[in-house]
């Protein structure tokens, strides 16, 4: 059956369940600035060693989530994450979208303007630049996957989603990491459910998740 994308100029995550698509969230291709006012007109220059593996740690108020990243497979994604972490881009932001359906179990984060109080613009902001898709050939999204949210092909920015249960998605979202620690945090957050679900059943998690900081380092 065909896909039905709900995008409206916002970053989308689709879930295939027959013809059902779950969409919306993350920043537009034009990208608004972050809460700190930081925004860049183009993707940062490559500064990582593309032959190395990297560890990204998301320090949240619920605990640390540790992600193994392979720069050889996703050099642009890892480089962008490294750059944004060094700029404290994510510091203080809240994860803004939770899905707990059988076909899509994920927590989405990365809008730097998403605060403690939900607002209509949540999911509509990014770093000002976009970059290309990577690692999509045969991509699947099993439990533990970390992938980029987007608004279509080659529109990656700062938003990403953390998969805590096998999810049915087309190979359209750059998978760039695997959760190696902190999976239980996502299960705990999911257990609280979605606060005020939208038409697609997703929304802010009832148990809030604030990103204190993000660090990236060679493994």
Sheet with most strands: 8 strands, antiparallel
Q: What order do the SSEs take from the amino end to the carboxyl end, as H and E? A: EEHEEEEEHE
**How many β-strand runs?**
8
CATH superfamily caption: Cyclophilin-like
**Portion in helices:** under 10%
Q: Give the percentage of residues in beta strands.
A: 15-25%
**CATH hierarchy class name:** Mainly Beta
The second-level CATH architecture is Beta Barrel
Query: What overall form do the CA principal axes indicate?
Result: globular
Number of helices: 2
CATH topology: Cyclophilin
The computed structural class is mainly beta
Structural descriptors:
about 220 residues; disordered N terminus; 8-stranded antiparallel sheet; Cyclophilin; 8 strands; mainly beta; about 10% helix
Write up this protein.
With 219 residues, the protein is mainly beta. The chain has one domain (53-218): Cyclophilin (Beta Barrel), CATH 2.40.100.10. Helices cover 10% and strands 24% of the residues. The chain has helices spanning 75-86, 183-191, and strands at residues 53-60, 63-70, 97-101, 104-109, 145-148, 160-165, 175-181, 211-218. An 8-stranded antiparallel sheet has the order 3-4-6-5-7-2-1-8, with helices on one face. A hairpin with a 2-residue loop joins β3 (97-101) and β4 (104-109). The radius of gyration is 15 Å and the shape is globular. It starts with 52 loop residues before the first strand and ends with a strand. Residues 1-33 have low confidence and may be disordered.
